[in-house]
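User: Can you help me understand a structure? I only have the sequence.
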Amino acid sequence: MSDFIKNLSNLLRARFPCIYISTWEEERLLNILSDLCSNEDVIRTPRNFFTWKLTEGLNEVNNGIVSNTRDPIQALDFIQKYESPGLFVFLDFHIFFGYNNQPANLEVVRKIRDSIKNLTESDNPKNIIFISPSLVLPDELEKDINIVDFDLPSFEEIKRLLKEIIKANDGNGVVINLNSDEEEKIAKAALGLTLQEAENTFAHAMVNDGCLDVNDVSLIQKEKGQLIKKTGILEFIESNISIDEVGGLENLKNWLSKRDESWLDSAKKYNIPAPKGVLITGVPGCGKSLIAKSIGSMWNLPILRLDVSKIFSGVVGSSEENMRRAINTAEAVSPCILWIDEIEKGFSGLGSSGDSGVSSRVFGTFLTWMQEKTKPVFVVATANNISSLPPEMLRKGRFDEIFFVDLPTKIERQEIFKVHGQRCLEDPEVKGDFEINEDVLSHIADMTEGFGGAEIEHVVISALFEAFSEKRSVNLEDFEKIIDETIPLSVTQSEQIIALREWARLRAVTATAQKDRGTYEEAVEIENPKEDEFSDEVFKSRGGRKLDF
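Assistant: Let's start by predicting it. Here is the structure, written out as tokens:
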């Protein structure tokens, strides 16, 4: 028995007069309620089952429509006079409760309050359930109506639906190429969809190429993207960035690789929980956002981006509700990745008196959820200025690990240049005689000491513009020219980078692999730095760039 059925049956047996369930899955819920009314083992006293619609009034299962009950007042009169056990389900009744900034129908609200005593003191149990896609409740009824959450279909329900569709279509011109683990991935990819949406998505995948296999996970994720877009707070990110396109950061990549598929049932025998998340901080332009996007492709999970600025609204109380709605949506489509870019900007100014504590309450809601969440929502937060984050966000239990992304080492710079160079030099006419070999990579890496990943990408693109403007193939001199003209961030923001490294030395794990950086102390070079060590004169004497780590 599901928690929902157990909770609802207890409320019905306890003679709760009015219950409100907000859901889009009207048909699925009605089937559950209809079965519940006849289940003596669960509900004890069977009830006659009625539904009310504005278009037809009350309709009793097996006995048809009750005349003269389209008007809600008349329908409530019928319920008061009804002497047998009954469950009365009103559909879309929120239109009388003040929906869409319209005033509530005070006559209907008063009639419901008048009916409460009749429902609780009736010789036979009678209950009213309101079903609506929107939760709208007038102040007058807040104490009289109990709200019950109706979760989206569980994994078991989705998997059962998948098996039914496979059975119905196998051999009917559709190729089914799924083993048990792949069936689990398909079913889990559809979590967060209604049963109807899941059925439509599976059917779409089958007719798309006449086949249902594990590659259809990406199509299912696109369907879930439609659900995300409707929230207005979360953004569905379609990322095709492979983890191999991220140069360097092997330590972080290896950490992520070990946690792939840890949300599947096959991981349960190891008694390991689904990973909570990771906080990635470091020098701007060194790949934090890039690797956040690549995790979706690596794990084959949808990426949802949370823009914290959209959480805060001018309406009192709506900011807290927006955060809860964003969290509920992320959990509904789990397993998924929740990406918060530059998280320190979103939660800046905590504790200030200007917003009457709204920021603190929203932040508290988010922290509590991160600590206690049980559904597989992997939070990836990136930050440039981590010192502005409150300490309670950084303690263990919020994130599984904190990684520091420093300026790339020589080996990493070679890898970054190779990735961007091979991607941009696919055309033989553009490439010409230029070859990306070990000597070229070493030469470019030596010239780009102190460059970040974004700056190396800029070098490649700008060199291509040089060649394009003269309608010729690219050459090594183009890259050398752009490198000489570029002043990297390690020069313009040297003090901030030193402070970042000082913070990270004892508080974070370096994202660069040991083999690529030597010892950690050699990598950061921050012990007792002199004030003039990173002065303009010193940088100028080094060719405008800091020495390699």
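Now, to help you interpret it: The chain has 26 helices and 16 strands. Confidence is low (pLDDT under 50) at residues 518-549. Let me know which part you'd like to focus on.
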